[in-house]
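Marked as duplicate of an earlier ticket. Keeping the data here for the record.
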Amino acid sequence: MAPMTTAERRGYQQICGNDGAMMVIACDQRGGMRTLLSADPAEQAKIGNDVLGHTKADITSYLASRASCVLVDPICAVPQLVDDGIIDRSTALLIGLDASGWDTSPEGYRLSKLVEGIGARQVRALGGTGGKIMVYLRSDIPQANAHNIDILKQVIADFAQEDLLLVVEFLTYQVEGESKAEYQARIPELIQGGTKICLDLGSKVLKLPYPGSAESCAAVTRLSGNVPWAVLSAGVDHETFLTQVETAMANGASGVIAGRSLWKDCISLDRAVTRQKLETIAVPRLRELQAIIARHRAPAAKVA
């Protein structure tokens, strides 16, 4: 595993807090955000990128200003967050490269997609501290991963060429003919296997689904060595995520990249409602996450 370059390490330091832990607010979702804003598919189709942009701006104002970093998409959120002065100068900015949704292979495997025209150089031009790429992996089915591994190789090489921080994320999924119980039982194995794939390809910072147990978190930490990993919320309820974060941090995680567990109960097509709920619901949730991180991470020593 290659160490971070000086430039990558500087970017990583910026997405972390004073304690050296990641506390990133994720709001790069688009399709998922539309489904939360309206339960009616016809109404969802009418929700434009401008509405999503306003929602992401409010999440940034209320949550990211109290955290170390915000993760957004390059379609709805930037350059407005920077150009309109919404993102605080001390808040780092990660920009997602993955397109919303996925294609499906003839065999039923998920094929990840990239946002057209966005690479490391464009992330830098948009004011990004770094980028984030997400792909789907089934480490137990090698033939399911070829397309998505090619995407990872392409993006990792691009960011290495530009010497820009890249956070690598993968998600697993249930395949055809697999029961929910069978899939759930395989999650620790799938998270560990996917982690190894990403590490073997040269990933230097990881964003991972909860590995399933304390033992699996510890196994991921051993696999990762000096590569830091953050646990993502995957839309679970807040109380469940608090428990997952406690376990992950106690077993070697380097922080949190949290999205829907913080704000899914807050966003509305009425911005006044969104803002009120972000302040009264999401901010206290963020404070609870930060308290867990604080119990496991001492503040980083300052160099005189």
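See parent ticket for discussion. The longest strand covers residues 130-136.
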